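User: quick one, sequence for these tokens?
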């Protein structure tokens, strides 16, 4: 299964800058069988358990998170880049290679104690997912797991999330950045 998923992901060298290999999941999304398999595999450990909400990280995490939420009969909660959400928000800043970025959720997006699964397409350094876990917890969420199609193990993002006490599920690993 991992091989089939791996083949369905397009790798683009030196995008968006030299030295980065961009793992493009639009080819996976466009392959009906691969898309279904990826969504099924992401949720498989939680099929049958009560999950209240799936939090997807903008933007590719929205596509996967929506499908995962539907599969688990859960709600969907968008974690967005700063300035995009219309109602009152809570935010979390996190470090990038150069500078910082900020993600936001609506103040009423989570009810205290709700069981939430975090979803994105890929975990690299884990900085984005770490900020999302901290933000969702600050809002009262019980983060059950964080799920990604792709892991870049050399960047050790998984360890960062596991160190927060959150189990991590990934489906495919790629070498390099
Ligand atoms: P990080 O915070 O370093 O874990 O970066 C994760 C975010 O950046 C995810 O939303 C990914 O979609 C995106 N990202 C980072 N590296 C790559 C890559 N090599 N290919 C595709 N997306 C990437």
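Assistant:
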């Amino acid at each position: 299964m991992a091989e089939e998923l791996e083949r369905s992901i397009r790798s683009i060298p030196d995008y968006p800058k030299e030295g980065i290999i961009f793992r493009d999941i639009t080819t996976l999304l466009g392959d009906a069988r691969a898309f279904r398999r990826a969504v099924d595999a992401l949720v498989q450990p939680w099929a049958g358990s009560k999950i209240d909400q799936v939090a997807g990280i903008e933007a590719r995490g929205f596509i996967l998170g929506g499908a995962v939420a539907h599969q688990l009969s859960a709600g969907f909660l968008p974690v967005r880049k700063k300035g995009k959400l219309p109602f009152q928000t809570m935010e979390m800043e996190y470090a990038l290679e150069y500078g910082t970025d900020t993600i936001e959720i609506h103040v009423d997006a989570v009810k205290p104690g709700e069981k939430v699964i975090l979803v994105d397409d890929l975990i690299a350094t884990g900085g984005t997912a770490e900020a999302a876990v901290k933000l969702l917890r600050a809002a009262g969420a019980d983060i059950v797991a964080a799920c990604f199609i792709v892991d870049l193990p050399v960047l050790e993002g998984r360890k960062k999330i596991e160190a927060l006490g959150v189990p991590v599920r990934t489906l495919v690993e790629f070498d390099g950045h």
